Amino acid sequence: MSKSSRATAADVARAAGVSKWTVTRAFTPGASIAEHSRERVLQEAAKLGYRPNLLARSLATKTTNLVAILVDDFANPYKLPVLEVLTQALQAEQMAAVLININQHFDHLSAILDADQRQVDAVILVGTDFKDEALNEQALPASRPPLYVLARESTIAHIPAVSCDARVSMAEINQHLWQRGYRRPGFMSGPRSLSTALGRKQHFNTFWQPHCGAPVPELRAGSYDRNAAAQVLRAYLQHTSAAERIDVLMCENDALAIGAIETARHEFGLRVPQDLAIVGYDGDELAATPSFNLTSYRQPLPQMVAALIRMLKGELPPQSLNLPGELLIRGST
């Protein structure tokens, strides 16, 4: 074998004095093979620089160990830790991620069809704007890979979702704010999506509207971006007298809350929390810094990803799960 050629399983088999199928079993997790044979194969493979051809293996196993991850809101800083934990967990199970950027030129249906052509084993939706008409069973090919939603709720019956329990988390947040004496709440929302809804606003309003006797004001940022949060809060504060303003603002995620804190403090001179208390959601590391000291709710990201991985491996039936997180009480409330 020349130095420029790539070592094959046959080369390793000859060097180790075993059959080609023994080499295959040595690199197959859980395969039946004597330990001394496996060690000899791995030693010779290391000498030759041999690595199994995963593409060729996929033809035999009919699985590629590839998982497509669809993301449509890269402006949301929480996506980075989500992708970090998710890809690390996939790699630990010998799976690899194919990241697909959803944008105005490449929609969700196009991405799913593209992923199907690449023979991925599953598609994970990690974003906000997944529309019913694009994801209904009639629009998708019958042979498509299974779809999952991570870190958001799904309202489409055939797409399971693993998310933080909105009912439990908002009950904890609402109780905390009520005990602190806040009585004029507002809610800052992000993108308005259809198929992957967030129950945070619903559960917040369900608690506060009867307690306050009036609808909860909604500040619609339209995206999970601190600049969008700054713009919508700026407009609210400019057009609302101090006597009529809310005394606590619940933000749909930490990116919005950080933008709100910066605007309230530096543009209007408001004290947080004395003049305006602010709450976020996600448990982002930046929110915990002294500059923001933001009360937030940490999503159980490792547990959510672990449950999703078990579904991908067939150890858990595909199903929607809502897992409890942790309320992080800090100085912003």
From TrEMBL:
One of its GO terms (molecular function) is DNA binding. Signal peptide: none annotated. InterPro entries: HTH_LacI, LacI/GalR-like_sensor, Lambda_DNA-bd_dom_sf, Peripla_BP_I. SUPFAM superfamilies: lambda repressor-like DNA-binding domains, Periplasmic binding protein-like I. Pfam families: LacI, Peripla_BP_3. It comes from the Bacteria. Residues 7-61 form the HTH lacI-type domain. This is LacI family DNA-binding transcriptional regulator.
